[in-house]
Write a structure and sequence with these properties.
The chain is mainly β. The protein is built from no helices and 18 strands. The strands form five sheets. It has a four-stranded mixed sheet with strand order 4-1-7-8, with no helix packed on it. Strand 14 and strand 15 form a beta hairpin. The chain starts with 5 loop residues before the first strand and ends with a strand. The mean pLDDT is 95.
């Protein structure tokens, strides 16, 4: 990715059957992510410049744009940035949009790396294990951990609630090889009665700084 321009990915992490359109505007430049459901993340987009922009979130009904739900001014820094809708439906205030830096300094020791970003609304604090070993802990809601080094081999990752010690979700996959690292986004509701919205991982590779 370029180090002088914003490099943006959008995701919807509101545990709901409702879909959203997200529109980011900066001067006369605009980009739209259309009809994103729970747990859907976009590819990277490079159309903006370093500076402030405005994001608008609309309800999307069967692919047709509905009511505007909220507006927020956000800073678009140079480098990779993930923008997500968060918390519960409907997103109605600036609190419901989170901007997440997704850049890092590549490792020189042939190790991969992982961090946990807690976007589970009913999980005040979470931790992450890899093959039973605690990698990061005490990750508050809407906050990300530092990157924990690990070998790029098949690993079973487990998220757990810091208070109850309850297992929230687990998955097995292979971390990306050096120099890449990835973020395990923890989304969903641990107390949901609908399995569609139960806590789960969305693992996405971050983009290195140059």
């Amino acid at each position: 990715p370029p180090s002088t321009k914003p490099y943006i990915r959008f995701g919807n992490t509101v545990p709901s059957a409702n879909h959203v359109d997200a529109v980011v505007t900066q001067g006369n430049v605009s980009y739209t992510w259309s009809n994103y459901g729970f747990g859907e993340f976009s590819h990277w987009v490079e159309v903006f410049a370093d500076g402030d922009g405005v994001i608008e979130i609309f309800e999307s009904k069967n692919g047709t744009r509905g009511d505007k739900l909220m507006t927020k001014t956000i800073y678009l820094p140079p480098g990779p940035l993930v923008i997500v809708t968060r918390d519960l439906w409907p997103p109605h205030s600036p609190w419901n949009v989170e901007t997440i830096a997704a850049s890092y300094i590549p490792s020189t020791d042939k190790m991969s790396g992982v961090r946990l970003f807690n976007l589970s609304p009913d999980t005040p604090s979470a931790g992450l294990k890899g093959d039973g070993k605690v990698l990061v802990d005490n990750v508050k809601y809407s906050i990300g951990s530092s990157w924990a080094p690990l070998q790029p081999y098949s690993t079973t990752f487990t998220a757990f609630d810091d208070i109850s010690k309850k297992v929230l979700c687990n998955d097995t996959f292979v971390p990306p090889p050096t120099p890449f690292v990835f973020t395990n986004f923890l989304i969903g509701l641990q107390n949901s009665t609908d399995k569609v919205y139960k806590t789960r991982f969305v693992p996405l590779i971050d983009a290195p700084e140059h």
